[in-house]
Structure formats: C-alpha cells, structure tokens
Amino acid sequence: MSKLRFRISMSLDGFVAGPSQSLQEPLGIGGEQLHEWVFPLEAWRRPHGMDGGVVNESTPVMEEELANIGATIMGRNMFGGAPGPWSKTDPWTGWWGRNPPFHHPVFVLTHHARDPLIMEGGTSFTFVTDGIESALDQARRAAGGKDVALAGGARAAQQYLKAGLVDEMQLHLVPTLLGGGERLFDGVETLHALDMVKTVVAPNVVHLKFVRK
C-alpha cells in the first residue's frame, strides 16, 4: 500500500502559520518566514517553472520529498478561498494560478460540496466532504501505486496524526518564533510509533524525518 507522507515547515514555538490568516495574509502575520529557506532552492523553483536557484544541504531533502508522489491531500485553509460555502459567481481556484505545481490529483478536505476543478499541467482538485479516510482512499486510488503527500495545514494534519494514518513525517524546523497562529500539535497526544530516523542541518532550517516503525 502506498504511504501517506506528511511534510510541513514549523517555527521553534510550534506554529505552522502565523496569526490573523486572510486572503491578504494566507500564512498569517509572519508566516512567510517559515518558507524562506525553500524559495531559493533550485529543487523548489524547477517544479514551479522558474530557472536558477541554489543547491545546498536542503536539496536532497526536497528532492526526496517530491519523489514518488502520485496525489496530494490538503485542508480547505491551505487551498484557500475563505471559510463557508464556495462562491458561485467567483469560484476560488487556489493560490497557484492556472498551472499549479502539483501536476497530479489533489484532494481538498472541506465541509462544502463542489464539482472537481481541472487545471492545466495535470493538476485536478477534488473536494471531499465525507472525511479524512475517504480522502485518503481516493488519493491512494488516484496515485496509482505511488505515495500520497499530506500537505497541511494544521487542522488537516492534526486529524491524520490523531488517527495514526501518517506513515512518514518531515518537519522543517525554522529558527524563528511566531508567538501565535496555528500550532501543529494541538490536541495530538501521541505520534503513533513515528520515530525520528534522520536530521539534516541546512541554511536557515533543520529537517527532522520521522518514519513509522
């Protein structure tokens, strides 16, 4: 069976998004700091259609993270578009433009039904209203034997962690304090046998990899 692989950037005080998230500040106030380590990487820029970039200790971590992924699961907050029912007059299509960087099926956890959204470059968004297990089943079928990425945000991750469904977890620990926002492990009381197997120290980040034994 394919693995569910969770990856996320986190501050030293445990937050994966800053306070006051909005359409103008999708990662909350200060939340952009959590991803400054990855933006210059060639391994990140290439899938986003950008040239150039640096190669450093984070490069093999990022390449491993992107390898063998056939589908992605994310929460409604990560997909965006504000809470509540979807707009019928101006439907939200995500943060990534017409050609998102996923290039495979993406399953969005939501309480509000919506028809699938087909984008350029092989990305499709399917909106799942019947729970995390259903989303994982659909993602595994769509992945065709490859692994499934769990992209966040915090609430989606908490549900899968609490249920013991995460097979691998990659935490990118960033040396900054946000002081508020969405804390990753709120309500998570056990890692369900996820053991730390690797640490990588890189510029502006420490990568911590956990694998279910």
TrEMBL record:
Residues 3-207 form the Bacterial bifunctional deaminase-reductase C-terminal domain. GO terms for biological process: riboflavin biosynthetic process. This is Putative deaminase-reductase. InterPro entries: DHFR-like_dom_sf (IPR024072), RibDG_C (IPR002734), Riboflavin_Biosynth_HTPR (IPR050765). It comes from the Bacteria. GO terms for molecular function: 5-amino-6-(5-phosphoribosylamino)uracil reductase activity. It holds the Pfam family RibD_C.
